[in-house]
Design goal:
By secondary structure, the chain is α/β, with parallel strands linked by helices. The chain has a domain of 137 residues: 2-Layer Sandwich (Nucleotidyltransferase, domain 5), CATH 3.30.420.10. 41% of the residues lie in helices and 15% in strands. It has nine helices and eight strands. The longest helix has 21 residues.
Length: 283
């Protein structure tokens, strides 16, 4: 057994219990002849560390599993949707924590353009002329609590209405209980398309004669969610090579927020780890 000092991003025992079944099943379904060397809990701790601090993968501290191993798990979970499965499980638990039904009946739609770093794929980057940003656009759908339902990353030069229509299709397919949505004037062109999916997309606007910033009904909650992204340095700019990797970072950011909200505990904890076997739910 080895010990290490905890990082602020480490999972507590209570938080690990919430997501451990998903990852244990994932590993059991892919069991190989060679036994696993690194515990899944430490892999997740390392991913949260990268997400929160923004460090490159190859600068991961040495008391975590090897950076290549951590990234391989991250890439696999991104490809097969395990990161989204963890996120969706936590969203359900968070809604239950707030006394809401598992599935929402209303949602909000908005986007955020983020500047891209040199490491991004140039073919997936564009210039948002309105915001003077060269990078990618994060289009998201949230429930009325501000919890993420869907995310779609495109080049920043893509007009909001195009990912908006695609997200409406995804809402109708994955969240059929939703019949009401709100969005700003950028999504005016998606109203008729939403109606074909039996969704009432309402466009929120400022009052007549109002200049400057004005909180819009319900939409301030999704603006707050977009603001949460900036607290994770990996999302302060777009450092990801592919749009799918950026979507994964958004899922991990929201997963961390929901874990802390559901457990109402500090992320700082002390526990023992072993490099040979997965960590137990509690020690």
């Amino acid at each position: 057994m080895t010990t290490r000092r905890p990082y602020r991003t480490d999972l507590t025992d209570e938080q690990w219990v919430l997501i451990e079944p998903v990852l244990t099943k994932w590993r059991a379904d892919r069991r190989s002849i060679r036994p696993p060397v690194h515990g899944l809990r430490e892999i997740v701790n390392a991913i949260f560390y990268v997400n929160r601090t923004g460090v490159p993968w190859d600068l991961l501290p040495h008391d975590f599993p090897p950076a290549k191993t951590v990234y391989d798990y991250y890439a696999k979970w991104s490809k097969d949707g395990t990161d989204q499965a963890i996120h969706d499980l936590l969203r359900t638990k968070t809604r239950q924590h707030h006394g809401r039904a598992d599935e929402p009946t209303a949602a909000m739609l908005d986007s955020q353009s983020a500047k891209s770093a040199f490491s991004t794929d140039a073919d997936t980057v564009g210039i948002d002329g309105n915001k003077k940003v060269r990078g990618r656009k994060r289009s998201i759908v949230t429930d009325t609590l501000g919890l993420l339902l869907l995310v779609l990353v495109t080049a920043a030069n893509v007009h909001d209405v195009h990912p908006g229509r695609h997200l409406v299709d995804m809402v109708a397919d994955r969240h059929p209980t939703i019949s009401k949505m709100w969005g700003d004037t950028a999504y005016r062109g998606a109203v008729d398309h939403a109606a074909t999916k039996n969704i009432d997309l309402e466009i929120t606007t400022k009052g007549l004669g109002v200049k400057g910033f004005q909180p819009l009904w319900h939409c301030w909650k999704i603006e707050r969610t977009l603001g949460w992204f900036g607290r994770s340095r990996r999302l302060a700019r777009d450092y990801e090579t592919t749009p799918r990797s950026q979507e994964s970072q958004i899922y991990w950011t929201m997963a961390g927020i929901m874990l802390r909200r559901v457990t109402n505990t500090s992320p700082v904890t002390t526990y023992r780890t072993t490099p040979e076997t997965p960590l137990p739910a509690s020690i």
